[in-house]
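User: I'm writing a tutorial on reading structure tokens. Could you give me a worked example: one chain, its sequence, then its tokens, then a sentence or two explaining what the tokens reveal?
Assistant: Sure. Here is the example chain.
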Amino acid sequence: MVGGGQGAFIGGVHRIAARIDDRYELVAGAFSADPARAHTSAAELHVAPERSYESWREMVAREAAREDGVEVVAIVTPNHLHAGPAIAFLQAGIHVICDKPLCHTMADARSLEQAVMTSRALFALTHNYTGYPLIRQAREMVAAGTLGDLRIVQVEYAQDWLTNALEDTGQKQAAWRTDPQRSGAGGSIGDIGTHAFNLAEFVTGLQVESLAADLASFVPGRVLDDNAHILLRFGGGARGMLWCSQVAPGQENALRLRVYGTLGGLEWAQEQPNLLLHSPFGEPPRAIRRGGAGALPAAAHATRIPAGHPEGYLEAFAQLYRDFAEQVTAVREARPPQAACTLVPGIHEGMRGMQFIAAAVGSSQENACWSKVA
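And here are its predicted structure tokens:
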């Protein structure tokens, strides 16, 4: 693991996700840019002292030289520290799992894309919401034509934790997310808007061709956006809207998706992830529950526990880790991976997210003009 030491939130999430299905063992890490914190973190995580590194550069050099060196590395740093280590590990032939968004600049994204294309190693990007069973159910239903021709896609991701200038208090997570040098050009659109954008394309199978964005920084002195309203035009003629906000009091982690076609609609909310509402046109709505009647193979593949038991955020992360483990094992055994394990987001989804950020920022700067996402 690169990053994820003491005081880091997402590193702990990744470690739990890696352990849930017993497919990974944490054996090495460069857990912090601060050497003392890196070694203290390693000791707390029971990583052997000789495999606790003070920098990712030291880690990639020494692990690549070991006969029992790491097979996969998870990069869980702030955005500006994604590209450098990811490229180095890929060039060393070590598989990479990287937290989203892909990078903090388009230049870094293109360099990382090139590294993925030329490496024999695999690359995964943890858009974790694609691992939810009923999101995969929704994708399978759309692909099967259950909704008919798609017309409308509504997606939103609202939070309230940055309603005040939390970054001014020294809070670590707020500080880097509101700093363009570490976060990149997007604030809320980079942090959570990319999740909403990715989910819309993942479920529908459509690509957003152009958008018109109105970005705002409501908190005085904040440089990056903390709220965005965006109109979407999809290939094939569907239309949509995306709202993301981190200044919406009362909203904790309100990621919601609604998709409507000529034959019916689907609704899903992350805060109630085990329920998918299917509304065939002219018929009563139908509640599809994780592990229950009507669940399709794609949802069953991502289901671990019996129906009625809560299953959500950590298990969705774990689903990506489990599917990626199958891909890595397939490479090792020189065979194709199981088909159900091929839905893990990768460099394509990462580049789409970066293109979304660039288009949204550019559109907003030009009075919400229509901008291509490419």
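What the tokens reveal: The mean pLDDT is 97. The longest helix spans residues 313-332.
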